[in-house]
Structure formats: C-alpha cells, structure tokens
TrEMBL record:
<protein>
    <submittedName>
        <fullName>CoA transferase subunit A</fullName>
    </submittedName>
</protein>
<dbReference type="GO" id="GO:0016740">
    <property type="term" value="F:transferase activity"/>
</dbReference>
<dbReference type="InterPro" id="IPR004165">
    <property type="entry name" value="CoA_trans_fam_I"/>
</dbReference>
<keyword id="KW-0808">Transferase</keyword>
<dbReference type="InterPro" id="IPR037171">
    <property type="entry name" value="NagB/RpiA_transferase-like"/>
</dbReference>
<dbReference type="InterPro" id="IPR012792">
    <property type="entry name" value="3-oxoacid_CoA-transf_A"/>
</dbReference>
<dbReference type="Pfam" id="PF01144">
    <property type="entry name" value="CoA_trans"/>
</dbReference>
Length: 233
C-alpha cells in the first residue's frame, strides 16, 4: 500500500523537477478550480521561459497572473485573455507570445494528449487566422484543419477530494479543464481541498483515476470571485 501513496508533504516537493523552459498545463477557468498553491510555488521557484497552457491567465495579482509579475511566462496558449492588464501590456510590448486557441480545441488538445492521440481534425477555425499554416482536409464535403495535441512537462490540477492513490473528484463547475489537464502531463500534480484514505471514494464518483496522477498535495484555497454580479432592487 505504501508504495502507491502519492501524497507529498509540501508544495516544493510537489513541483520538484520543474525547470526553465518547460511546458505547464494548468487546470482551471478564470479563478474557478485553479491550483492556487501550486501556481504560488512556481512563482517562488522563479523558473522562467515557461510555456503555460490554460483557459486564461488569471487576473492581475492572482492565479496564473502572478507568474507574469516576474516575467516567468514566455508563451501563453489560451482561449481567453481579457481580464489581465499586465498580460495585455506584455503582449503589446512583445514580451509575451500568445497563441489564441478556441476553447473546445484547447480542451481537445489536452484530452487527445492524454489518450495518446498526436493530432485531430476539427472544423473550428477554418477560414480564420487560426487555420494559417495548418493542414486542411475535406471530409464529406466540409473542410477541417489539423490540430496537434499538447502534452505538458507538468500538469497542475485542483481537486475537491483526492485519495492517497491519486484518484480525484472535482466539485461542480470547478471541474472545468481539470480532468483533461490531469491526463496531459508527463508529471501530473494534484492540489486537493481534502485528502482521504483509499476506499473512501466510491469508484463511481471518481473523475480522474489515480493512474494519471504522480503527486498529491493538500492545499488551502482563497476562492476569490472574479466578477461580483449583484441584482439591483
């Protein structure tokens, strides 16, 4: 049993081996379901030249946005980039390369990597700048473009519950990109709100099987609200 225990004692241990120039795939959507402590650990490590793959880059001063403060990200692969002024500054100045990717395509790039599929055809992006330089092929009279999957050197994921074997459960919309990201890393690290003993998670409720997970660390989460919307009287 002990040989299957994937729980580590610190975020530093969880991210051991991350180096300059690596690719990091991060689960989360805005500030929902993000591995806050693992992102903070990357900032503390000071590694630079990173390619980060995620739906977006957080906000100024929180989430993936903190990695922009020390110029740690050189390339960002994302589907939405509208909530971060520092991101905008670095993009316009040429400090940051941005590869905009349709959201469904981005999710499939992660999922395909986890399934061992190197590339796939999609109709999304045909006839737009997204298709520039990519192979086109016609199926049943409709054009599709070839998109390559993305595998990260590290994948960082946030779970609601994880057991010591790495089996994960996500909660409601905090699931978002996390299941796909978890399959797409050479090293997958899960930051969980709760760590339970093996057998406490029913097999039917597991979203990510532990076979995909290398390390599990207990996290503490701030759970900020990205945009507070209230209804007027």
């Amino acid at each position: 049993m002990a040989g299957f225990d994937k729980v580590v004692s610190s975020h530093a241990e969880a991210m051991a081996g991350l180096q300059h120039g690596m690719t990091v795939i991060a689960g989360g959507f805005g500030l929902c379901g993000i591995p806050e402590g693992l992102i903070a650990q990357i900032q503390r490590m000071g590694v630079k030249g990173l390619t980060v793959v995620s739906n977006n880059c957080g906000v100024d001063g929180f989430g993936l946005g903190i990695l922009l403060e020390q110029r740690q990200i050189s390339t960002m692969v994302a589907s939405y980039v509208g909530e971060n002024s520092l991101f905008e500054q670095q993009l316009l100045s040429g400090e940051l390369q941005v590869i905009l990717t349709p959201q469904g395509t981005l999710a499939e790039k992660m999922r395909a990597a986890g399934a061992g599929i190197p590339a796939f055809y999609t109709a999304t992006g045909v006839g737009t700048p997204i298709a520039e330089g990519k192979e086109l092929k016609t199926f049943n009279g409709r054009e599709y473009l070839l998109e390559e999957s993305i595998q990260g050197d590290f994948a960082i994921v946030k779970a609601w519950k994880a057991d010591r074997f790495g089996n994960c459960v996500y909660r409601h919309t905090a699931m978002n990109f996390n299941p796909m990201a978890a399959t797409a890393g050479k090293v997958t690290v899960v930051e969980a709100e709760m760590i339970v003993e093996p057998g406490e998670l029913a097999p039917s409720e597991v979203h990510t099987p532990g076979i995909y997970v290398d390390r599990v660390v207990l996290g503490q989460f701030e759970k900020r609200i990205e945009k507070r919307m209230t209804r007027g009287n």
